[in-house]
Amino acid sequence: MLRKQMYRGKKTFRLKKESREVFFCYVFIRKKLPVTGSVDTKKQKFCKKIKKMKFSKYIGLATLCMCLNGCTDFIDNAPDDIITIDMIFDDKTRTEDWLAGVYQGIRDPYWDYTRYDAFEMLANDITPSQGWLPYWGSDCGLGFRVGQWEPNSGWSGSYWTMSKYIRQAYIFMDNVKALPKQNVTESDVETMKNECRFMVAYYYWMMTLVYGAVPYFEDDMTSDSPDLMRGQKSFEWMIDWLDNQFLELSKVLPDSWSTLYGGRATKLAALALRARILLFAASPLVNGNEWYLGFKNSDGEERFSQAYDANKWKKAADACKQLIDEAEKKGKGLYIVNNKENGKVDPFMSCYGATMRTEGEGNNEIIWFRPKGNYGDWEQHGTPRGCGGNGGLGVTQSLVDAFFMEDGTEPILGYNADGSPKINPNAPLYSEKGFSTKPEYRATDYYLMDGYNDSNYPDVTPERDGKRLIVQPNTFNMYCHREPRFYLTVVWNGQWFKWENRNTNFLYGQPDGGPTHDAPQNGYLNRSRVSLDYIPRDNNHPYRPAIIFRMAEAYLSYAEALNESSERMSHKQEILDNLNKIRHRAGIAEYGTGTDENGFTRIKINFSDQKEVRRLIHKERRVEFVGEGVRYHDLRRWKTAHYGIGNLNEQGENPDWGVNGPDYGMNYYGTEYTDQGDNAFFKRTKYMDRVYPRKFYWYPIHQSEIDKDPTLVQGPFWLGE
Fold this sequence. Notes:
Blueprint: E1 5-8, E2 11-14, H1 20-23, H2 41-52, H3 55-67, H4 71-77, H5 85-89, H6 92-103, H7 111-116, H8 119-122, E3 126-128, H9 133-136, H10 163-175, H11 186-211, H12 235-249, H13 267-282, H14 311-329, H15 347-356, E4 366-370, H16 375-381, E5 393-395, H17 397-402, E6 412-415, E7 421-423, E8 440-442, E9 463-464, E10 467-471, H18 484-487, E11 490-492, E12 496-497, E13 502-503, E14 524-526, E15 546-550, H19 551-564, H20 572-586, H21 610-624, H22 631-637, E16 661-665, E17 685-690, H23 703-708
Helix pairs in contact: 6-10, 10-11, 11-12, 12-13, 13-14, 14-19, 19-20, 19-21
């Protein structure tokens, strides 16, 4: 049974399920360590009494308990009605604690998005080992990848529970007040109320994002509410409401917060979420999608509009432009680090720092973040088993294929019906045969290869002529001559692992390979957002913010919205400029003609071909946001998630590889470091079959919720095609 455990000094207690929500709101600012404990009979009785109280009363009691050193003693001896809601909001500390609780529902963009929310599992970039399923149980998204997902499936990532944070926000707004003697001014009160408004809108957006149509409440949803069963609002209604809310909030929220209060709502965060929401609303999944004709709420209203509206793309573009303009006025932009040797952009350290550096370290790319993320599990599970990790968190072969070459060309243009790749004949640097004989050096301060010393190659050193070693000899040619973001993301078999001063060995029966669930299921591990200073055996995980939105997304979203708008041809240069900002920072050739600032010959594209420009923008988003929770919702909104290798869409096109059908990788059972023969490791091999029917585009409402409220209507196709 799930439970919330709280720590106060050396004393502990464990609440039963019915009371855990009481304490859930506390740990955002005042972080406490979870420990085990037991519940005696007296505490059980007390919990039962709390359950009978009105919510606004007992959550206040809980907050007070957590502010007292002798919490368990207090619970043992306190009368039932000692605390009132007024006593909570008559105290500055308890008021701040409640506000912290409102923020607590923000999902962690590291481990929550991966294990629990299933955003990464259901996408096609990050791939956890399916061997973890028996150990993780059903409380994760692993089963969803193979179709084991029904309305009665339970897991921690259910976004339906965000309603409790909405409730906490409403209670806060109804009761917060100025406390002049405690230096809480009317201005402070107004700011905190606006923060709660922001969080209410954020939670409603996250619910709308995954369910499509959701119930909407304008009050605290207590048992005194006159109409608890009120059905759902349509997707269109929710988008209009969210649009207005975030636009209004962008005018009243603070520009920024001090480091001590980092992660709280700001004007730019409101504009960023608004831009993201409107881009989703303009996309094919919900903009004139005939799939959802006849799917209505209980009041007879269509859940999704059936009419395509081209103006939605313009609205999304305008929202992105407003965000970019306001952000750049405040000094925001792409995080750029120049190389110490040549003074040019260091793409390795720039792309690395965009997600790993804090605002205090000069990362001006961050728009909104969660102060703390579970990057410990993220890093540990991406680390080879033989190096002190739980090495089963990998990346897909299709992601490996998606990264560009160092000259900016595409190595793979698509896939045949049998899963074989369509290798680009105009990418001379790419090969899937043989192994490298020479080292590769790049002008960078990226120090992944520190400690490398191979007597077989005496002329290879970690540093040479002001450059650093990136690829050592005897590397499978598929991984050579790739762009910087590739090396920041992919751990392949035979790659140097500096923390152990050895190469990884994923061969079957070897230290980092099978047979075990803690091995790369498809021959790769993940390095995206893994610290260069992470020391696996010391369990050292250097701090970094859990970024929810950064400027790179604003630029690429703006380029996409302009390309889809009816005015795209008049915005050619703007589209290219925003797309090229990302490529310039990534250290690869820009699109266009002539020579770019990095000295590359620009790559010519046929701008009149909207589909081609769309494809390139989609691919750029994929390799830029690996592991950040963006990819899955991109596949959803583009309506391409249900496609797989060799599938054609309604227009006869082969879209970006979705998540339905076979997944490929290197040969998990390979015992030889070669690309030839039955036992070769380096050969494309199917490792699993994904299942993604149309109903998966929206999370199902759990059947228990529908049983409680007959006005709720299940998501499209979950009751049958």
